[in-house]
Amino acid sequence: MSEEMVIAVPEAVARAAHIDRAKYQAMYARSVSDPEGFWAEHGKRIDWIKPYSKIKEVSYDAEDLHIRWFHDGTLNASANCLDRHLATRGDQTAILWEGDDPNESKAITYRELHAEVSKFANVLKALGVEKGDRVTIYLPMIPEAAVAMLACARVGAIHSVVFGGFSPDSLANRIQDCDSTIVITADEGLRGGRKVPLKKNADAALASCPSCKTCVVVRRTGGAVEMKDGRDHWYHDLMLAASADCPPAEMRAEDPLFILYTSGSTGKPKGVLHTTGGYMVYASMTHEYVFDYKPGEVYWCTADVGWVTGHTYILYGPLANGAITLMFEGVPNYPDASRFWQVVDKHDVNIFYTAPTAIRALMREGEELVKKTSRKSLRLLGSVGEPINPEAWLWYHRVVGDERCPIVDTWWQTETGGILITPLPGATDLKPGSATLPFFGVKPMLVDNDGNVLEGATEGNLCIADSWPGQMRTVYGDHDRFIQTYFSTFKGRYFTGDGCRRDADGYYWITGRVDDVINVSGHRMGTAEVESALVAHSKVAEAAVVGYPHDIKGQGIYAYVTLNVGEEPTEELRKELVQWVRREIGPIASPDLIQWAPALPKTRSGKIMRRILRKIAANEHDQLGDTSTLADPAVVDDLVGNRMNRA
Ligand code: PRX
To answer: Domain named AMP-binding enzyme C-terminal: which ranges (predicted)?
Structure first.
């Protein structure tokens, strides 16, 4: 082992785990030397209506790019999450829901969830939803979100969940992009005691979506909303009349299961498309092995269902495994910053999976808020969404886990469908800050900017050499963009967009994005998206957005804004622009710092030199590097002189 701190697998953990070191090594070796044989066997972990005979048909060649897994098999994802458990654990809790208000919680059994999903599937059919139709879901963290997603899967409709924090415009763009004809929302969401006007936002979005003709509204808070005759229906009214008998549709393995929009390096979010068979196999397998899930355990992933983590590790993975999955409506600091640990004690949570940004925010509140709770039920902790700094990792391990619970730092992406690089708790010695080693079937590789494969301890661009079953299949409606984005930078390989270091033990250390995507509190934000929101303001001539290191958020959003001639750069305008971006995209895109830029640093051919802007934003203006290609060096002096981040 190299010089970094190493935390060995506790012997008791190894003994009790599904996978120990020897098993990991043997299974991993087989998974990459004989993928067909390996996945032929592990594909059977889910229920197929018609068994597959084909396993893997993949080409990463841009001329003929296709990815197919278990192609001739048929199945239904909701049947795998519900029906298959009725005989063995129908009365066990499936979803343990904890409300924003600490006095509100409920347990929903597999049998109850099966009935609700079947009913809502019948509701969807009665509203005219058919196989392959796109259904947009804009709901808060309430059980109806799970019901709606699984009901889509049951009838073979493709769900597109839009995070409740997105603005009406962002929602409208996502409805339009996939031509969805129906939206499912709620009157209002509830987070940290505050109401989120979801129906009002949906109304505003639907005003520009003429082909979306139906809106189903769940009553969550009882707040007043307008209901449009002929278009809007109350969920509860529709459910009253619906039958709880709805046979699951037989879907082909490669039929789409869902679309999830994510930011890239251009202004327009991409509709990442996942299909049914491979995704379900990969979601359930990673959930069982990475979290070492054992029947009866309470598992809690704190993500929102609006993100891929919620899709795979609140819903599909855990439910396919018959797990008890906790769904939390609230936020970590309401009513106070001890809430997570109070919920852990209240529900005897065994496995807890959250994001580094939450850990850093809670760390700042002090140990006492953690220490006053028991947490004795916890046995495993997880981290996802961004690199976790060793300091936060060690605090999580020592204070939250009492040095008893291993931490799985899981690296993956919306595009990958499930976890690709991660420790397995019984098999992998941990190094704080490293996502460690690849999961079964995953072949990471590091390449230099010219695409040369780098061996041994090194640093480079993280690519994946071959397909795994959970991989995205295309960008919805734009297969060329799929090929361009992921398979053209480095020919024949899937390019993740991340930079990464590999140490002498073969451990992977993700260093962050190498493209124009930034990671704000574990949420992906395209800088181009924020820029196009800014330039849409009538007073803005030009804008450039970069990330900068932020203590809590990981990265903050730093915007350089050039105003139109004659506009005054005032404090009011600065505030107005922040509000403007919030309205255009959503609160997660709010610029943290806005610097007035009389001009932006450009090359003589007019290209903005982002490298320089990143350095100034990071307060590293003494390391600007080569500036000889600048058209006007005085521009940089002005930006350095007036920089906003002097921390
Ligand atoms: O940069 C990586 C970072 O988050 C990106 C993926 O973002 P998204 O598609 O929103 O999915 C987030 C949840 C899976 C990656 O390209 N990232 C995610 N997990 C980690 C991470 N960076 C370092 N360590 C991680 N564990």
So the answer is: 529-607
Q: Is 507 helix (H, G, I), strand (E, B) or coil?
A: coil
The terminus-to-terminus CA distance of the chain in angstroms comes to 36
CB 528 within 8 Å of CB 266 = yes
Q: In 19-70, where do the E strands start and end? A: 56-59, 66-69
pTM, full prediction: 0.97
Structure tokens at 587: 């609160």
- The angle at the Cα of 644, spanning 552 to 619, to the nearest 5 degrees, equals 75
- The first and second tokens of residue 38, run together, are 């390996």
Phi and psi (nearest 5°) for 365? -80, -10
Best of 311, 383, 412, 462 for a ligand 1 pocket test (most atoms within 8 Å of beta carbon): 412
Give the residue-averaged pLDDT of 609-627: 94
**Over the stretch 22-39, which tens digit does the pLDDT of each residue have?**
999 999 999 999 999 999
Nearby residues of 280 by Cβ (< 8 Å), 6 or more positions away: 46, 75, 77, 80, 257, 316, 320
Cβ–ligand 1 contact at 286 (below 6 Å): no
Parallel, antiparallel or unpaired: strands 74-75 and 251-252: antiparallel
Residues 75, 277: contact at Cβ < 8 Å?
Answer: yes
Q: What is the dihedral of CA 435, 304, 316, 158, to 10 degrees?
A: -120
CA of 234 to the centre of ligand 1 (A): 37
Q: How far apart are CA 486 and CA 585, in angstroms?
A: 25
Residue 210 CA to residue 231 CA, distance in Å, equals 11
pLDDT at 3: 55
Pocket residue to mutate for ligand 1, from 384, 430, 511, 523, most atoms within 8 A of Cβ: 384
Dist. CA 578–CA 537, nearest whole Å: 11
> What burial letters (b/e) apply to 427-465, b meaning 16+ CB within 10 Å?
bbbbbbbbbbbbbbbbbbbbbeeeeeeeeeeeebbbbbe
The Å distance, Cα 239 to ligand 1 centre, comes to 38
Instruction: Provide, for the chain, the percentages of residues in helix, strand and coil under a 3-state DSSP scheme, each rounded to the nearest 5.
Output: 35, 25, 40
The answer to whether 498 is a known ligand-binding residue is: yes
Say if the ipTM goes beyond 0.85: yes
- Which is nearest to 13 in space by CA: 410, 316, 480, 378? 378
Is 30 annotated to bind a ligand? Reply is no
